[in-house]
């Protein structure tokens, strides 16, 4: 490994340095190409007709990438709930700006600030206990707002219902599932909740005076060279919004997703610049609460060794529907980004475990 840490230029300027010869992958990347190739080819055979791509970064080199026949290097996919990690990263700026006295109007916000102080659209409250929901609860999935465990999945709405109105408990989604009543006192229950995460888009826009997407583009994409990412909005058309969709809707390629992973691998630093608040990178990628130790603050974590048994404890990941993932293992100097249209059911341990097994 080189003494000076390498950071890739944008794709338009050459992009990742890469290794192709097996001896270079072995000597420079420290990985076994036979194992990697067998793993990726087996993945394609087993996962049928789904479209996907994988980029593997080791020691700052693109040591292997693999795409199904209908996917190109710059092909972008909606990475679904990986978007939550993008939201969490962007919230790190807000929290750090508050620490430094840089929020508009000198506002002060931390993890224990009551969220509804900055969500006036939520009044009157659909449940009085919502007054006790903090940003810590929203970012760690402990708000009590119902989610997947209670069949409140995504934020699909009928034509005459706004997505944020559903998230705030004003109306059920198109399947008739409400998010109005909490499933427990905030901080005492864990449920993977898209309506809860949607609150973060509303509060962010209120506090920062900007939506999540333009802040992420300015403060992450530009300094680290992500050139071709888009982030959906939701709402509007007579309803609350439009605002950046906090729970899904980032469209990105495998190589560019790996850039975010590489930034996280280096604790938020890129070249000589501290792009992300280092304290937030550290905090958000560890267990955030005791109810579900597998979850940090919008990142899935292995702090207790229970999420990916047998794999490194410092492994953490952005995780989304249809097997979209970005795995980061700082102790191994490893990033694995996978984007695709599926499958919906898949053993992620076979991929990340197989990649780790290929390390010499």
Account of the 3D structure:
This protein is of the alpha+beta class. The chain folds into two domains: 11-78 and 252-357, DD-peptidase/beta-lactamase superfamily (Beta-lactamase), CATH 3.40.710.10; 80-228 and 235-243, Beta-lactamase (3-Layer(aba) Sandwich), CATH 3.40.710.10. 29% of the residues lie in helices and 14% in strands. The chain has helices at 22-27, 33-46, 83-99, 135-140, 163-167, 194-208, 212-224, 254-265, 278-284, 348-357; strands at residues 52-58, 61-67, 77-78, 230-231, 233-234, 243-244, 250-252, 269-270, 273-274, 300-301, 316-320, 324-329, 334-340. The strands form four sheets. The protein has a six-stranded antiparallel sheet with strand order 2-1-13-12-11-10, with helices on both faces. A three-stranded antiparallel sheet has the order 3-7-4. Strand 8 (269-270) and strand 9 form a beta hairpin. Helix 3 (83-99) packs parallel to helix 6 (194-208) and helix 3 (83-99) crosses helix 7 (212-224). The model has no long low-confidence stretch (mean pLDDT 96).
Count of separate structural domains = 2
Which secondary-structure class do the elements indicate? alpha+beta
CATH superfamily of the largest domain: DD-peptidase/beta-lactamase superfamily
Report helical residue fraction: 25-40%
